[in-house]
């Protein structure tokens, strides 16, 4: 059965494919001035130290050197000019387009507003169809990439919302620019009649008429306004909207929509600035070019092997079954005094198991062979920070008096805590206080207890896996076939921390280091840092980790060391690469090779597999492990496939685009793709495959947790230097 990409080959109508441009030396001010003058029909592009000006008629606004380019040999320039032709064509049709990397186009059709059948056509918010168009060289062929999704829009000014009695205080607003862009202005600090006082992100204050500003189309404003208009029906409306959006993004509809726009451009063609006509071909069948990655093999107790974790546990038990040092664990439970009875029942099922569950019959104790737990419950008098602090203090003092330490703390929280500021959030205070005493924490919401028996079994199964890892156990490792002496895989993640748009801080997490077999290694200085301190922290942590591992594993002079870096960044910059090289230079006694692997979710490419066209869910979705090498440096791979989707409305799975930086000294894309795929099955947070490798997902979790914990009074990252920092405390 055919497999296609949403990438359509481009070809020029003439054979010569040459184009002329006027070249002048690059100067930023001059370049900006030329780009800003949209009244002239020129196309401007910087190439190296030149500004290239392409003209429709051979006339140019400045004098320069005329150069001729063969587009058949310069695909990057060909792709740029083709995309420029697409944008000019859409603009000439009166369509409002924005951006260039990629071009974005919103549908203006009434039927393309997904809210109409749910709420009605007159609602001030919309969920509209959005197309993205870009160009990319795939397998050496320039292609037009067309993607289709949805986005939220607001089509009424703030005056409308005031007339409906909607509170605008503390809500972010935008103003519409001449080019159609909506620029973030700030948040509303006061309303005086028809005037809004807006506090800007830079600290400035503005006065603006409510008829000149729009609410930001954020999920918060969207949800709050639905609450305002629909009250108790809000949850039902939100769920219907979620299903509508997910169904729209299903493979069958996405494929149809993309091909509809493709056929439009096929019938009209794409005209370059000089009048050259570009044709668009149908997508190629790439079925024969794709590969299929095999399921990884996991290693369990006594070196037992299985390609399915549940099977491995049943046959062999966890990897550290014989060496686990927290048997018959001492377990502390923190819960509300009003929920003590049902929480005790829940904890018993968690520890002892659920007889009718498919995978959790024997509970944490039986499945992981940890003996019999010693449980004590401490109740909170209130659901605020003071109530939790008091209960946690009592539990810790009791253990100190006994000369012991809790092996695990189970803390009951509520879903509503997610809306609280970190300083008022019992969730983070609970982690902070227990971590201070080197006690791993597993939180669970009281709402979890309302699940059906079937769903609860799966939830408890995953919760037990995470708890075992937090207590220092190793559920399984990956089977590896080492071809070199030593290999380390370093994960670089990040998180946005903050309660307001202007106060957010980007936090980098660079603390997940794995050996080639999936063994989790943590340096003694686990950190989450702001971007401006990131490169220094990266080199420091890498240096300390290598020194630690070199001693532990007795590296010998002449050994080969391979360092693989995973990062979900826009690109690896020269500072990151230099930070790594500065460390590598210290280890000249070894042969060191390294690879920088950029991992991207937002790339616009999709595979459509006709083999699943008749499935009930995941129509046209490829299987997990399907991959296509786009070039020697790039691969599209699916870590989640058709079988991993749970329901019809789950939409089309998103593949990952892997890109090896050209400065890497190790460039085997197939090896690196297989390794990343294996790491996506290596999360001890869940038995299900992860849409990201643990190198990234663990780093993101560390960045998020440490970023928030650092906002609590008295917290210090030095707390993580102890045993707690050597475990998967963040799961």
UniProtKB/TrEMBL annotation:
Residues 439-711 form the Piwi domain. This is Protein argonaute. Coiled coil: none annotated. Gene3D superfamilies: 3.40.50.2300, Ribonuclease H-like superfamily/Ribonuclease H. The lineage of its organism: Bacteria, Pseudomonadati, Pseudomonadota, Betaproteobacteria, Nitrosomonadales. It comes from Nitrosomonas marina. Belongs to the argonaute family. Long pAgo subfamily. SUPFAM superfamilies: Ribonuclease H-like. One of its GO terms (molecular function) is nucleic acid binding. Signal peptide: none annotated. Pfam families: Piwi (PF02171).
């Amino acid at each position: 059965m055919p497999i296609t990409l949403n990438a359509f080959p481009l070809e020029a109508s003439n054979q010569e494919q040459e184009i002329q441009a006027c070249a002048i030396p690059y100067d930023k001010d001059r370049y900006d001035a030329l780009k800003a003058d949209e009244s002239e029909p020129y196309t401007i592009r910087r190439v190296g130290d030149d500004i290239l000006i392409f003209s429709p008629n051979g006339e140019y606004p400045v004098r320069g050197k005329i150069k001729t380019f063969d587009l058949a040999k310069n695909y990057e320039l060909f792709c740029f000019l083709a995309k420029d032709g697409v944008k000019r064509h859409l603009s000439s049709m009166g369509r409002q387009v924005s951006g260039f990397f990629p071009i974005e186009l919103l549908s203006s059709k009434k039927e393309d507003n997904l809210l109409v059948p749910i709420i009605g056509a007159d609602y001030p918010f919309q969920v509209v169809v959005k197309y993205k168009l870009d160009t990319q060289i795939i397998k050496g062929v320039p292609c037009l990439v067309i993607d289709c999704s949805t986005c939220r829009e607001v089509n009424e000014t703030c005056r409308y919302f005031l007339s409906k009695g909607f509170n605008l205080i503390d809500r972010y607003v935008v103003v519409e620019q001449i080019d159609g862009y909506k620029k973030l202005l700030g948040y509303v600090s006061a309303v005086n009649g028809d005037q809004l006082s807006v506090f800007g992100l830079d600290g400035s204050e503005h006065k603006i008429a409510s008829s000149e500003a729009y609410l930001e189309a954020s999920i918060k404003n969207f949800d709050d306004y639905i609450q305002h208009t629909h009250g108790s029906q809000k949850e039902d409306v939100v769920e219907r909207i979620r299903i509508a959006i997910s169904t729209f993004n299903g493979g069958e509809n996405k494929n149809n929509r993309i091909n509809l726009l493709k056929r439009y451009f096929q019938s009209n063609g794409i005209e370059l600035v000089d009048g050259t006509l570009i044709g668009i071909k149908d997508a190629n069948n790439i079925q024969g070019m794709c590969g299929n990655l095999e399921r990884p093999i996991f290693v369990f107790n006594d070196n037992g092997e299985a390609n399915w974790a549940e099977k491995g546990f049943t046959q062999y038990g966890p990897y550290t079954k014989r060496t686990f040092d927290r048997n018959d664990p001492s377990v502390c439970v923190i819960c509300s005094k009003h929920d003590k009875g049902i929480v005790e029942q829940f904890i018993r099922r968690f520890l002892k198991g659920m007889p009718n569950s498919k995978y959790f019959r024997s509970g944490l104790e039986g499945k992981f062979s940890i003996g019999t737990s010693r449980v004590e419950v401490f109740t909170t008098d209130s659901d605020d920070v003071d109530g939790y602090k008091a209960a946690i203090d009592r539990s810790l003092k009791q253990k100190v008096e006994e000369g012991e330490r809790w092996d695990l703390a189970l803390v009951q929280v509520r879903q509503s805590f997610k809306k609280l500021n970190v300083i008022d959030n019992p969730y983070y205070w609970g982690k902070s206080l227990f971590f201070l005493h080197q006690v791993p924490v597993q939180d669970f919401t009281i709402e979890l207890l309302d699940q059906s028996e079937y769903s609860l079994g799966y939830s408890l199964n995953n919760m037990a896996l995470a708890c075992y890892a937090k207590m220092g156990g190793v559920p399984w490792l990956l089977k590896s076939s080492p071809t070199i002496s030593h290999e380390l895989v370093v994960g670089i993640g990040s998180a946005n921390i903050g309660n307001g748009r202007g106060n957010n801080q980007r936090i980098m997490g660079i603390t997940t280091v794995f050996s080639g077999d999936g063994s989790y290694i943590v340096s003694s200085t686990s950190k989450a840092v702001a971007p401006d301190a990131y490169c220094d922290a990266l080199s420091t942590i890498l240096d300390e980790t290598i020194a630690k591992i070199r001693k532990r594993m007795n590296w010998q002079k002449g050994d080969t060391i391979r360092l693989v870096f995973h990062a979900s960044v826009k690109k690896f910059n020269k500072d990151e690469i230099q930070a790594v090289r500065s460390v590598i230079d210290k280890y000249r006694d070894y042969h060191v090779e390294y690879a920088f692997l950029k991992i991207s979710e937002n790339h616009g490419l999709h595979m459509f597999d006709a083999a699943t066209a008749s499935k009930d869910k995941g129509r046209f979705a490829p299987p997990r492990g399907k991959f296509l090498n786009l070039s020697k440096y790039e691969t599209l791979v699916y870590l989640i496939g058709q079988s991993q989707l749970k329901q019809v409305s789950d939409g089309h799975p998103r593949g990952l685009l892997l890109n090896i930086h050209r400065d890497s000294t190790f460039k085997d894309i197939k090896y690196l793709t297989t390794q990343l795929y294996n790491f996506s099955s290596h999360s001890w947070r869940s038995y299900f495959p992860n849409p990201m490798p643990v190198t990234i997902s663990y780093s993101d979790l560390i960045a998020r947790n440490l970023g928030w914990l650092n906002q609590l009074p008295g917290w210090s990252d030095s707390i993580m230097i102890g045993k707690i920092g050597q475990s998967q405390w963040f799961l």
